[in-house]
Amino acid sequence: MLSRRRFSKGAALAGAASLMPKIAGATDMTNARAAGFHLPAEDDPHARTFMQWPVSRRVHPDPVFLGMVQQAIADIANAIAEFEPVVMLMDASHERAARRRLSDAVEVWDVPTDDLWARDSGPMFVVDGQGGLAVSHLNFNGWGGKQVHRHDGSIARRIAEIMQLELFDNGLVGEPGGVETDGHGTLIAHESSWVNPNRNTGSRAEVERLLLDAVGADKMIWAPGIAGADITEFGKTPLFTRERVKAVQDAGVADITGALRFRREELRTMGADVVLSLIP
Question: What is the pTM of this model?
């Protein structure tokens, strides 16, 4: 299986947003759904792209490789900035060096980072359909404590403070990149990534309730995932749009056909066009 670290080196990083809280301590009044907010579909229009500047030598001990990673991230940001606003998050002490790689069109915010995975450690923005914007905090913990995250674990909260947005936090631990939504009340996620003691304590039903509350949804579709696979505990998250569900899984996994079959009939009862794809 292609691991996240191997992908980073092999593809030159073609990537773009503590103690674990006990589920019993969560309260229903601190979630997006109770306040009328929800996570929009990924293909909905957005205002800007957030990215993270990788700096941790514990994550990237080779200084040459770290420089290559930073250049790849800068190239991506510079390309996106030609079409929409881009915000690069980093500690202010790194801005002078980073500016040698970043175009003037890329805005820099003083938000300390460790690594580059903004989709997992960055803010999860939720909307109320009336112009309201907030952040739903998923308490990123380094994919179950598998990577340092002293700064990355605080990014979502820091962004909410800078943008003066309400922060919803019901104690759930996970990654925004570990769940997909159609923007109309249905979620898809891998059970191995959420119902896992390295992130959340409690039953699947308890975790499901917290996830629905955090994302502002009503229906949950669970895929089994692949426990222990790299730092994400699963292959690739299903891609979910209004018209089609594409279940994507890394090739090379035992009984991959069975894994991809996870909820095909349930998806079809929703009227979804189900497409199964393998990534070699």
Answer: 0.78
